[in-house]
Amino acid sequence: MFKTRSLFSALVNRLTLGRNGGPREVFSTMSEASRDEQTAKLLKRANEENEDSAEKETVQASKKLKSEGEHADVQATTKLKAEGEHADDEKKYPKKKVVLLVAYSGKGYYGMQRNPGTSQFRTIEDELVNALIKSTCIPENHGDEMKKMSFQRCARTDKGVSAAGQVVSLKLRLIEDTVEKINEHLPPQIKVLGLKRVTQGFNSKNNCDARTYAYMLPTVAFSLKDYDTGAIAAFRLKPETLQQVNCLFSLYKGTHNFHNFTSQKAPNDPSARRYITEMSCGEPFINGNIQFAVITVRGQSFMLHQIRKMIGLVIAVTKGYAKEEVIERSWGHDKVDVPKAPGLGLVLEKVHFDRYNKRFGGDGLHERLDWDGEEETIKAFKEAHIYPTIVETECQEGSMVSWMSTLPIHDFKATATAAETQDNKDQKEDTADLGNDSD
């Protein structure tokens, strides 16, 4: 310890007595050497850190590339696997052109046809397509583009209208128990009742020769205009009144210009001419203490609201609001104010493919498109889901009686201008019905 202090003191004394200004020069020399040494150390450390950082970045980049490569491999493998499974499905269950016989109660639905972009308006096809996807009968992407499965319905039934014999054509995978698998994903009020193979070029709308509709209504609709509508349960249709009704319906048979029985059709529009082969009212029956009857009409095709207006005009004549001559006058060029009966009781009963059956039904390769084997199933569905809904809704809401109360406001001798006012009202209702072009 003492030796070290002595040496340090001697060194200080020597520095103090230096010839060139004392210790400043010595400390300056030591300071510069120290700075050079520190700089060298810092540079060395920086180089080492850069080397470490570069090495880390290289490792990270390598790991990232490896991860991306592995992810790409997984995606490629998954895609190949999916494509392989899809190809296997296509091989195992190739797509075939078929028709489905569909029955449904239309209450609560905005018609048959799907309306893209208006998901709040639920339709029968929305439910059907969803069931086809869930049952794997069609790929999921076919749901948004129905053309991919060549989908076509025979008739675009209107809001609230039911069907016992709707037919749609499409391409689907014929999986095991196809009909049962589809029905597993449908609500009780919609059901596929049958399936048949058809030719590749078959189109259920274009190949349809005729359509038969039924309209179920309380017979009080044919009462005289001064009848007390509060006594519906007591009303019974007289045989002579039924005969009068059928005489009026028979006037519709043949080809006529029905431009007054729809909207936005000019009198000279060729498409307004429609061919009716049958129209009549059946014998009345009791259901829920109320007397009902069923009107049957068969025609080549029908325009929007045509059937409901045909029935509405006959009711107006029977009740005494209009004269019989108004029916024939409605086929002329003048606008006639034709009332539209409620949609509740209208049912697409059957569609006909006579020409197709004649050409392909007996060739030994294709099935005839008739549904005689499903008659009992169709009847059971109507009795379980369609008729009870019509009767219950009529009893609860009284749609026919409410509509009858509007008949006095119609002017059956209306000029073209007055009738156009009513037609504008119908046009607004048609817009609300989302543009279906047939009943």
From TrEMBL:
Question: What does it catalyze?
Answer: uridine(38/39/40) in tRNA = pseudouridine(38/39/40) in tRNA; a uridine in tRNA = a pseudouridine in tRNA; a uridine in mRNA = a pseudouridine in mRNA
* GO molecular function per UniProt: RNA binding; tRNA pseudouridine(38-40) synthase activity
Q: Which family does it belong to?
A: Belongs to the tRNA pseudouridine synthase TruA family.
Which residues does UniProt mark as catalytic? 158 (nucleophile)
**Which residue intervals define the domain Pseudouridine synthase I TruA alpha/beta in the entry?**
251-354
Describe its assembly.
Monomer. Forms a complex with RARG and the SRA1 RNA in the nucleus.
Q: Which UniProt keywords apply?
A: Isomerase, mRNA processing, Nucleus, tRNA processing
Q: Name one GO biological process term.
A: mRNA pseudouridine synthesis
Query: What residues bind substrate, as annotated?
Result: 213
The UniProt function text for this chain reads: Pseudouridylate synthase that catalyzes pseudouridylation of tRNAs and mRNAs. Acts on positions 27/28 in the anticodon stem and also positions 34 and 36 in the anticodon of an intron containing tRNA. Also catalyzes pseudouridylation of mRNAs: mediates pseudouridylation of mRNAs with the consensus sequence 5'-UGUAG-3'. Acts as a regulator of pre-mRNA splicing by mediating pseudouridylation of pre-mRNAs at locations associated with alternatively spliced regions. Pseudouridylation of pre-mRNAs near splice sites directly regulates mRNA splicing and mRNA 3'-end processing.
Q: PANTHER family annotated for this entry?
A: PSEUDOURIDYLATE SYNTHASE (PTHR11142), PSEUDOURIDYLATE SYNTHASE 1 HOMOLOG (PTHR11142:SF4)
Q: Which GO terms describe its cellular component?
A: nucleus
Compositional bias, Basic and acidic residues, is annotated for 33-58, 422-431
Q: Where in the cell is it found?
A: Nucleus
The family database entries (InterPro entries) matched by this protein are listed as: PsdUridine_synth_cat_dom_sf, PsdUridine_synth_TruA, PsdUridine_synth_TruA_a/b_dom, PsdUridine_synth_TruA_C, PUS1/PUS2-like, TruA/RsuA/RluB/E/F_N
Q: What EC identifiers does the entry list?
A: 5.4.99.12
Q: What is this protein called?
A: Pseudouridylate synthase 1 homolog
